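Q: Please design a sequence for this.
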């Protein structure tokens, strides 16, 4: 329980999403390979998490 007001949580979440979308758009528009590496790392971490959960190591 974080005891924060709902409007502050909503505004904070929207600002965070805006920053993330802006970062992704910036990488995409520049044709940067960093975006591919970031997406690859996220996908790999999800696969590892699913395998670990299946093997009950988490």
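A: Design:
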């Amino acid at each position: 329980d974080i005891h924060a007001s709902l409007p502050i949580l909503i505004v904070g979440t929207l600002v965070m999403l805006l920053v993330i979308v802006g970062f992704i758009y910036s990488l995409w528009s520049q044709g940067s390979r960093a975006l591919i590496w970031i997406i690859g790392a996220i996908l790999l971490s999800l696969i590892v998490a699913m395998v670990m959960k299946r093997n009950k190591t988490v």
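Q: Thanks. Anything notable?
A: Helices lie at 6-29, 34-54. Residues 34 and 40 are 10 Å apart (CA to CA).
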